[in-house]
Amino acid sequence: MSTADTGTGTGVTDQISPERVVAPLAGRAAPAGRGGAGTAARAAGTRYGLPLLVAGVIIGIWYVISEVVLNSYQRFMLPPPHRVLEVGFFTWSNFVPLMDALGVTARVTFTGFAIAIVLGVGAAVAMSQAKWVENALYPWAVVLQTVPILALTPFLSFFFGFALTPRVIVTVIIAFFPIVSNSLFGLQSAEAGMRDLFALHKAGRWTRLWKLQFPAALPAIFTGLRTSAGLAVIGAIVGELFFKQGQAGLGTNMTVYTSLTEGEQLWASVLTASALGIAVFVFFGWLSQRVVGRWYQPKGR
User: Fold this and answer.
1) Three-state SS string across the chain, please?
2) CATH number for the domain including 266?
């Protein structure tokens, strides 16, 4: 291995900041003018008003289907929204088990998601450093993404039982691929000119990774994290549908409420799971803005 591959790098590479690395990839935000306040207000109205408008339309359609389309014998599977709130959230005897199940699902989600982040980013870093590693590992990452979870259920239950561990494994499997694919894309997307600059100053492999590739990859990495955040919740729910022993999560309760035709509590569990996924997604969106929002602005924004 040459000195250029193993050295730590000195001089110019020690002074390169993430902002300079990704500046060619980012657009500069336009300075605020006299109409900045009005523009910001209109942007906020568009950002929050339109989703609220769509939410109102969805609730209206929900009421129409529940009250008009379905008869009294079918309505248990889609009760009106006010009944879901009243029975699922405002009835204390139902709300407490709902929050307990949310805690179990959240624990599975965050545990599996954390493992998926470590494995996904680690695999992407390894693949970005050697083409033969990418050729060896990436096809298997695709295979892992496409294998039906139902086919793995006997294997997982045989080795790990039916409690929390296989649920976490299912979460990792479902959340893994977007992280590794986006991270690998970001690590390979550093500008060619910056690569030549680092090579000119004989920067080592780890210097290039830490000061060039990783800063340039941060926007793509956070895109993968936001995508996998919602998938991690889905993975936890799917795992709970298959592995029902141990503490009951939201997915376990959904199965029970479906069998008992308790539509209000079923939809309360569905809405709670959706809220968990949205919360995790929003958190990583906020974290992305805090980490890369100061110097990265997508084109056309």
Assistant:
1) CCHHHHCCCCHHHHHCCHHHHHHHHCCCCCCCCCCHHHHHHHHHHHHHHHHHHHHHHHHHHHHHHHHHHCCCCCHHHCCCHHHHHHHHHCCHHHHHHHHHHHHHHHHHHHHHHHHHHHHHHHHHHHHHHCHHHHHHHHHHHHHHHHCCHHHHHHHHHHHHCCCHHHHHHHHHHHHHHHHHHHHHHHHCCCCHHHHHHHHHCCCCHHHHHHHHHHHHHHHHHHHHHHHHHHHHHHHHHHHHHHCCCCCCCHHHHHHHHHHCCCHHHHHHHHHHHHHHHHHHHHHHHHHHHHHHCCCCCCCCC
2) 1.10.3720.10
Length of the chain: 301
pLDDT of residue 28: 44
Name the maximum alpha-carbon separation found in the chain.
77
Say if residue 55 is in the same domain as residue 81.
Answer: no
64 and 179 housed in the same domain: no
Would you say residue 100 lies in a domain?
A: yes
Domain shared by 42 and 180, yes or no: no
Same structural domain, 211 and 82: yes
Task: With cut-offs at 50, 70 and 90, classify the pLDDT of residue 107.
Answer: very high
Give the pLDDT mean for 47-65.
86
Condensed to tens digits (0 to 9), the pLDDT of residues 85-101 reads 998 899 898 899 999 99
Cβ atoms of 254 and 241 within 8 Å: the answer is yes
Last residue of a domain, one of 69, 88, 123: 69
Residue range 259-278: average pLDDT? 90
Mean pLDDT score of the chain, rounded to an integer?
79
60-87 pLDDT, tens per residue? 998 888 888 888 777 788 888 989 999 8
Q: Containing domain of residue 51, as a range?
A: 34-69
In a domain, 269, yes or no: yes
What does the block give as tokens for 260?
Answer: 């008992």
